[in-house]
Design a protein that fits this description.
353 residues, 13 helices, 9-stranded mixed β-sheet, Dihydrofolate Reductase, subunit A, alpha/beta
């Protein structure tokens, strides 16, 4: 099952409205096939894993990270091909929260004398499919955010650009690849001029679509995110109308969306509604402490990633985040899930249910 999750993680955030699923097939104690959900969601992992007609799958064991689908959608159900290939036993980690399939595969497969075993590595599944559960149960999008700080919790330093090391920065690129969209603010663009793409070899095509909150159309046309908009889809949320700037943005293929104001800021609920209606489900926020405070105070964050180095900035530090982390730790639903050593740096992941 761990190998199946390894497969699923390869396409996390890149399967559209369908979940990322991994599938492994074993026969006579030998691995005979493995697969993950295809990019943009189809075909499903089980169907791909069972598609090789040269393999005799009769009597095999199938391991899937999620309950195989049993309903007709744009394709026939995976339970059909499992039956057709004469699989002996099916193991899966989580029941599919989609009500069309929830707890139905077990009944359908058992009728054909195919044994099923569920909740294999259930805790891993609870974490991995948290976004899919939220989407199916509440119709909300899943929002992750991150901050990089020094050991004394500053997010900037007077003389150096980088706070964390190359291993932490590479992990951020991987997180970008695991989300279908990335959201930032004009303040971050003006301060850091980031590209906000994935620059890991082999994963560049998993770069998320980029969204910028820029109420007054302040980001310059020379910024990297604007200059690369012809290669990576880039959207800009605004309110103040500047027809000349809007025309220039249109010419370089930046899509602009006007959002109403709420308390003198862009109405964030309407931004979320736009993202959801456009089929974006996993949003990664890379912004400063002010925007992160807004997200935390209004309970928008589902997962939070804290990268911190062993450096002490002291008087050289700018923008201390101690109050932010104190506030997050006091939230009852906040739970530290993992801690990863990245040489001199560490990564802490918090789940805010």
């Amino acid at each position: 099952m761990k190998l199946a999750y390894n497969q699923a993680s390869k396409v996390l955030g890149n399967t559209g409205s369908n979940p990322a699923v991994g599938c492994v097939i074993v026969k006579n104690n030998e691995l005979v096939s493995l697969a993950h959900t295809n990019f943009n969601g189809r075909p499903h992992a089980e169907r791909i894993a069972l598609s090789n007609k040269k393999i005799n799958f009769k009597g095999s064991l199938l391991y899937s990270t999620l309950e195989p689908c049993s309903h007709y959608g744009k394709t026939s159900p995976c339970t059909d091909i499992i039956k057709k290939r004469s699989i002996k036993t099916v193991y899966f980690s989580k029941f599919d929260p989609d009500r069309r399939s929830f707890k139905k595969a077990k009944k359908k497969l058992n009728k054909c004398n195919i044994k099923t075993f569920e909740n294999i590595h259930k805790y891993i599944g609870d974490c991995f499919y948290k976004d899919f559960n939220i989407r199916k149960r509440t119709n909300n999008i899943f929002i992750s955010s991150k901050l990089a700080t020094s050991k004394d919790l500053f997010i900037s330093e007077k003389y150096n650009k980088w706070i964390t090391n190359v291993y932490s920065r590479a992990r951020v690129h991987l997180l970008r690849a695991n989300h279908d969209s990335i959201l930032t603010t004009s303040r971050t663009i003006l301060k850091d001029d980031p590209m906000l793409n994935c620059r890991i070899d082999g994963l560049q095509h998993y770069s998320p679509k980029r969204f910028v909150i820029d109420k007054d159309l302040t980001i310059p046309m020379t910024s990297k995110i604007i200059r690369t908009a012809d290669n990576i889809s880039t959207y800009l949320f605004y309110n103040s109308i500047d027809n000349n700037k809007l025309n220039k943005l249109s010419q370089v293929k930046v899509k602009t969306i006007r959002i109403d104001l709420k308390n003198k800021h862009l109405d964030f609920n309407k931004i979320i509604l736009f993202l959801r209606n456009k089929g974006f489900y996993r949003v990664f926020v890379e912004a400063g402490i002010k925007f992160n405070n807004f997200l935390l105070d209004n309970l928008y964050i589902n997962d939070f990633y804290h990268f911190y180095s062993d450096q002490l900035f002291g008087n050289r530090g700018l923008y201390n985040t101690k109050n932010f982390f104190n506030k997050m730790n006091k939230i009852k639903r906040s739970k530290r899930e993992i801690e990863i050593n990245l040489f001199q740096d560490k990564l802490l992941k918090y789940s805010l249910k």
